[in-house]
Specification:
It comes from Actinomadura verrucosospora. This protein has one domain: Rossmann fold (3-Layer(aba) Sandwich), CATH 3.40.50.360. It has 7 helices and 7 strands, in the order E-H-E-H-H-E-E-H-E-H-E-E-H-H. Strands 1, 2, 3, 4, 5, 6 and 7 form a 7-stranded mixed sheet that branches. Helix 2 crosses helix 4. The longest helix is centred in the N-terminal third of the chain and has 17 residues.
């Protein structure tokens, strides 16, 4: 059985961060096929235990189980709201608690939410360096969802979610993601273009 751990740092209920995390998990699970177990860690529910673990250096109780779910998963989906142009403090504190080397080589799909699209670069200048330091394998496609992406028919959000989920599934399976067919692989000969064939 393949295991996916989903880390959601959303603060509200309902939360657009959790909504994005769930959509990414559904996409990855569908791309994986077969038997997939998804474990969602809502950091909001562990806020006090997270502070205790930061102070003591030892996670305990339900929070310890949450950390083990993430460090033992085949793949991780990590989603945060963007505050002050970066990930939330709760999100950072969680990954500070994880022991060095625990996520080394682990496929990780990054996601973030924010009020406007101008916050989307937080994934590249804040989240990617964090997971590079942890030596995790961050997927090439990350997904940012602004408020206007929800409920709009002409958004590319579903396509980005599908592509990111497929990349995570491929990385978990140890194979490269299937590339789209290149329309230039078999070009029409120039002579045929000239004669209209």
């Amino acid at each position: 059985m393949t295991t996916l751990a989903v880390v959601s740092a959303g603060l509200g209920r309902p939360s657009s961060t959790r909504l994005l995390a769930d959509r990414l998990a559904e996409s990855a699970a569908q791309a994986l096929g077969g038997d997939v177990a998804v474990e969602t860690v809502e950091l909001r529910d562990h806020a006090h235990a997270l502070v205790d673990a930061t102070l003591t250096g030892f996670p305990s109780g339900d929070f310890r189980a949450a950390v083990q779910a993430v460090t033992g998963a085949d793949g991780v989906i990590a989603v945060t709201p963007v505050f002050n142009a970066s990930y939330s403090g709760l999100f950072k504190a969680f990954f500070d608690v994880i022991e060095r080397g625990e996520l080394e080589g682990r496929p990780v799909l990054l996601g973030a939410t924010g009020g406007t699209a101008r916050h989307s670069l937080a994934i590249d200048f804040a989240m990617r360096p964090l997971f590079a330091y942890l030596r995790a394998n961050a997927m090439p496609t990350a997904v940012f969802a602004a408020s206007e992406d929800w409920g709009s028919a002409d958004t590319a959000l579903p396509d980005r979610i599908a592509r990111a989920g497929a990349e995570l599934a491929a990385a978990i399976g140890g194979r490269p993601a299937a590339a789209k067919a290149d329309p230039y692989d078999e070009p029409v000969p120039f002579e045929d273009l000239l004669t209209g064939r």
